[in-house]
Amino acid sequence: ILDPSAPLPVTIAQASPPANSATERKNDDHSFATIVMAQRDRLRARCDAMEAERDSFNCELQVQVSTTESLKVDNTKLYEKVRYLQNYNNKNGPGSNLKISGLNSRHQSNTLVDRDLDLEALEQRYEASVDPFRQFNRSEKQRKLKEMSPMERTVFVVAKTVLGSKEMRTALFFYVLGMHLLVFTTTYHWSHGCSSTYPTFKNHPEHLADFHGGAPESESGA
Predict the structure, then answer these.
(1) Range of the domain at 58
(2) What is the mean pLDDT of each run of 10 residues along the chain (222 residues)?
(3) Helix (H, G, I), strand (E, B), or coil: what is residue 172?
(4) Which end of the chain has less neighbouring CB within 10 Å, N or C?
């Protein structure tokens, strides 16, 4: 016979909900961690792809720059050949069969030469390459640079690098300004510390003697 006043026994149905909630919470945490890890892996793969794309763009840019430089050299050589043929045509007279359309002078380039070809720039580059004064100036600069001592050459290269661009000049200005402020601040604090210590030595001479390692023997004997 059961006692009516006795408490009811705990059933399995009442004990199972906490275990189920803990399991569900654990499963939710695991699913969140899986989602975050998947997003991290996708982001890492995307970053790797972007880095590879950047490297390919840099390589392509270097190739294009080298190609542009080689094309400039080729255009200068072609213009040199054109100038040679032009002089040869002028020497042979007006009856020559050689025809160089649009390359007779700079004034005729607007009507007879291809618009994609900048004859003025080509002519300037060609004149700079064959100008004896510029070549002599360049050779003299190289000779003077070789005659410098290593220290002078280092100073020249550093000065040319620093003063050659606006950004470097600005950085040098702020660097010098910062160094001056640092020296000024350090000197101010040092002088203020010395001025605050001087009254102590003046009122208590024994501290000054201790500061200098003690009084001399002659004075102590006296």
Answers:
(1) 47-93+102-130
(2) 53 51 74 88 93 92 89 80 77 53 49 55 72 75 85 86 85 93 91 63 55 50 44
(3) helix
(4) N
